[in-house]
Amino acid sequence: MSKLLEVKDLHLKIEDAVILKGMEFSLEKGEVFALIGPNGCGKSTLAYSLMGINNYHPQQGEMIFKGEKINELAINERAKKGITLAWQEPARYQGVTVREFLSLGLKSKGEEVAEEKLKSALNKVAINPYQYLDRYVDKSLSGGERKRIELASLILMHPELIILDEPDSGVDVVALNNIAEMINYFKESGSGILLITHSEEMLKYADRAALICEGEIIRQGDPSDISEYFKSFCGPCVKEEECETEVAS
Amino acid sequence: MNDYEMMVDAYKEAGGDDIFSDSEVAHVVLERDKILGMHAVEGLEVEAEKVEVNKVKVKVTVRDGYQIKNPVHMCFGVLPKEGKQIIDMNVEIQKNAQVEVRADCVFPNAVKVEHIMDAVINIGEGGSYIYKEHHFHGDSGGVEVIARSDINVEAHGKLVTKFDLLKGRVGKIDFDYEAEIAEHGTVEMLARISGQKDDLVKIREAAHLNGESARGVLDSKIALKDQAEAEIYNELTADAAGAMGHVDCTEIIKDQAVARAIPIVDVRHPEAKVTHEAAIGSVDSTQLQTLMARGLDEEEASEVIIQGLLND
Questions:
Q1: What are residue A63's DSSP bridge partners?
Q2: pLDDT at site A2
Q3: Which stretches of chain B sit within 8 Å of chain A by CB?
Q4: How confident is the model at residue A144 (pLDDT cuts 50, 70, 90)?
């Protein structure tokens, strides 16, 4: 498999706080790469840096997508190249219908907005198009509904790299199963997925995983091994000495 | 093409429906002080009369118990580049009568145009008046609109006003609506305006929930860019048991635009309740960046968010 994304020696500081310290990993097409780690370790910051979100521009290091350095590209330029991000808390929009929201990704790619495409994407995420297409993407949707509509918009965009920032947070079991199915769907379609999660359940869908601690990847490998390591050494993070010993060895 | 045809054309261009030949739809068409068309239906009376140069007096009455099936269409405007139109409007919705009015005010060629509306609206017991006003001012910004409404809603009556100006320039708008609401009466006043360049928007909407269990909502959503300015005064008072209301003002600004929101909430009964929310700021960055992550550039993403807000 060829490299879809390479992150090399990525450093990011926001004001005086050092958030990412030499982050380094790669991701291949059709691969699900999970990043786990405690709150505040830099997982979401990495996601925002990769997407090019304002104020999250690394001071050092390279982000390379399909062989091209993307550090200087704007968010929409990265999106047009095939990168997208699904936020942990997707934004809500007053007065914008599900139909309009789903159409945006298609329009920006110059693709025809056919009603059948929208319905098909919604059906894939177990949302009834007849009940939802004319609803607003606003506060009237539950967290699970909103996340599934976000996934439907990704289906229509068919991006090559999808960054999923804690897709499982704040959703019910039905939505969770649906998210898991969608991860498999994207993977089978050849998209690379960077999966940021706290959940062991989600780790099952990853091909590889990495543990982040204080802005650094301290371990990479098989998801079950990473999960075990995380549970043993990072839980409430009171075993700093053991962790340091383990990492050093 | 005669004046009537030109007005109807301007009306259609502004988004109006072609209803003027439908005998079941009441309408009034005024260009400055010229009464170009007028049609009533059973239960609804329309009178219009030129009272002085540039000034027309219009009286609309919906008789007791009549529920007018189709919305009444009012088309007002000034066709030349310069001109003035003063409308003295009197609306009487009698007991248990219901009507919806769609008013389109079109000034497609305006360079220096004044449109002044003075309205007195009485909604009888159990009556309902829904008034949707849509403006199209062209692109020069040469329109000045001054509108005053004095509204009285009797017991169990209902008033809804919805004003929108979303395409073209605003020019200058100065609204002052004041409504008195009796027991179990309801009022909703909604305004949606998009301003640009040196447009000036001044809105005062006041509703007094005087009767027991009266209800009121004042909701303004304004988007401004360039050097446009807006001042929104929303005033809601409640002086009776069970009276409830909400004031909501959202303004999005870009560039050098300036927005002010002044909500006044005045409650004088322990069993009454009025809430308010006001938000002024730029486009929300998470909303913006989410759309940019779908491939839209910043301008396109802002437009989606602003149009959504104004369509809400």
A1: A7
A2: 64
A3: 284-287, 289-298, 300-301, 304-305, 307-312
A4: confident
Segment B232-244, tens digit of pLDDT: 999 999 999 999 9
In contact, A36 and A230? CB cutoff 8 Å: yes
Position A235 pLDDT exceeds 70: no
Rounded CA-CA distance A236/B143 in Å is 66
Confidence of residue A243 (pLDDT cuts 50, 70, 90): low
With a cut of 70, list the residues of chain B below it in pLDDT: none
Q: How many CB atoms lie within 10 A of CB B103?
A: 21
**For residue A248, what pLDDT is reported?**
45
One-letter amino acid for residue A79 of the chain: A
Residue A241 has pLDDT above 70, yes or no: no
Amino acid letter for position A76: N
- Which helix (H) or strand (E) segment holds residue A210: the answer is strand A208-213
**Diameter of chain B by CA atoms?**
62
Q: Cα torsion for B263, B229, B222, B135, to the nearest 10°?
A: 120
**CB–CB of A211/A219 below 8 Å?**
yes
Residue whose C-alpha is closest to residue B51's, from B37, B73, B32, B74: B32
pLDDT for residue A175: 77
Query: Nearest CA to B265 among B257, B256, B278, B274?
Result: B274
Q: Give, in order, the Cα–Cα distances in Å from A31 to each of A10, A26, A55, A190, B16.
A: 21, 10, 28, 8, 54
Which of the residues B250, B287, B290 would you substitute to probe the A interface, choosing the one with the greatest number of A C-beta atoms within 10 Å?
B290
What pLDDT digit, counting tens, does each position of B148-177 carry?
Answer: 999 999 999 999 999 999 888 999 999 999
Q: Is B295 close to A87, i.e. CB distance below 8 A?
A: no
Of A54, A84, A105, the CB nearest to B285: A54
The residue of chain B with its CA nearest to that of A100 is B304
* CA–CA separation, A219 and A247 (whole Å): 8
* pLDDT given for residue A239 in this prediction: 43
Q: Mutate which of B294, B305, B307, B311 to test chain A, going by most A C-beta atoms within 10 A?
A: B294
pLDDT digits (tens, 9 = 90+) for A72-106: 999 999 999 999 999 989 999 999 999 999 999 88
Q: Is A52 helix (H, G, I), strand (E, B) or coil?
A: coil
What are A191's two structure tokens? 């998209």
